[in-house]
Amino acid sequence: MQLRPRQKDFVSKCVAALDKRGNTIGIAPTGAGKTVMLSAVAKEAGGRALILQHRDELVAQNRATFKRVAPDVETDLYTADRKRWSPGATFAMVQTLSRGDNLDSMPAFDLLVIDEAHHVAAESYVKIIKRAREINPKVKLFGVTATPQRGDRRGLRAAFDNVADVISLSELIAGGFLVRPRFFVIDCAIQEALSKVRVTANDFDMQQVEAIMDKDAVTDRVITEWQQKAGDRRTVVFCSTVSHAEHVMAAFSRVGVKSSMVHGDMPDGQRASTLRAFDRGESQVLVNVAVLTEGWDCQAVSCVVLLRPCSFKGTMIQMIGRGLRKVDPERYPGVVKSDCIVLDFGYSLLTHGSIDTDVVIDDREGSGTPLKPVCPDCDTALPKGALECPICGCVIDRAEKMAFQKARGVLTDFGMLEVDLLNASPYKWQDLFEGAVTLANGLTAWAVVLNFRDKWVAIGRKDGERARTLAVTANDSKAIALASADDFLRENGEKDAARKTKRWISEPATNKQLAQLGMKPTLFGNGVTKYLASCMITWQFNEREIQRLCLKT
Predict the structure, then answer these.
(1) Are 343 and 337 in contact (CB under 8 A)?
(2) Is the pTM of this model over 0.90?
(3) Could you tell me the residue range of the domain that residue 253 belongs to?
(4) How many domains does the chain have?
(5) Average pLDDT in the 292-305 region?
(6) What distance in Å separates the CA atoms of residue 440 and residue 538, rounded to the nearest whole number?
């Protein structure tokens, strides 16, 4: 499995920080490929690794991804159902391992990896880290998270004293790995009242927020704005309290929109059933209270409504991120998604200024950005160019941050960034039929992107399997389709022989290839390379199947 260039950069910086300081945390949002990068860091660091997860589904998911990244490393599980220590990498459930007898059986590890590392301050994690260090004082500690700022500002300092790298949402959006958000901050004349709400240890006082936002005038405005801007979209709404959520759900129902609700006080089975029904499309709007900020994925969501303020930028980013994932057309047939509308009634976007953790990554190549700046509030070592501490939220230099954001502006030139994606790919993307089709051949897999009925369709096929649709996007979103196709090739294509740097790529086509294409060899050649011929033959053999899949979109 081949990493994207930005993923390689992230891995190299994390490994360098681990070597230098013995611990580090890397920050990457939904869609960055955290599990892939986590696995690559564990592989590069070497030695015996323990990888911690806090949910059952993450254990199996992380292990499967690790096997694709490091197929030669032995793995095993330490869960309630299976308790085995691997000499390579062990994937463990925190809740199981943190129990006394289980913890006593733990062997020495060289590397301790924590997925969703913002949970590291919990007692169960603390017990495991303490035990790992008792057995091996030199054990290295590596964490990955999308949202380091969780409740207690200094909660991660006991485990991590530096941030190795931060991947921004803007990078992923520009590269086509997430869809573009379209922001609307809607003023209901409550900004001053919200500014006076008490901030608790974890967030705003939601009872006070409810008193301000759970009013008919605000809810009616929510319905009106939603109908005008996003009335045909699958939507998730974040409310302040259960009572507030009930009133919002009732308001959607009154205008004929089928809606549902989940919150933390619901029985687990009922909540899971409601989420599955929403995923199947049985309701259009899902209203929730503080349960969908992480660990939930419904790719069909293309509208996020913020009906509460966010004291932490990380919480806001997690909420918005629920709508930024690309759609797998096989999982959601007929759903075309190229952007996500964000309706902000709580002024969170104005409060935090952007959807990115503000760290400028100057060095995109090499062994890693030096850890020089130090946060004045929590003493965390940060990547060069940091404007805001991801751990505690402290603004390092407010004037510099404002100038940086003004200079950066809004990401709009996705056409140019699309070219950068193709240049960064290890595979050669070949235009066919005057650019109407773009195809890459990875020998053990191929992928194609083509415009069909004002949509961009990405299709791929791995040897031994049937072709499948990878993405369907709007006419102005070719970059998203290309990113899906390129990711498919990186995972399934031949890793060495098909690289665009190989000499055979530019050599003249063979007589056998020309014969297959109905061309005759000429004395001076005809400009057809081996690679172009292979792409044309791939199209020739698979055109009917590609057409069939396009007709289904």
Answers:
(1) no
(2) no
(3) 174-352
(4) 3
(5) 89
(6) 9
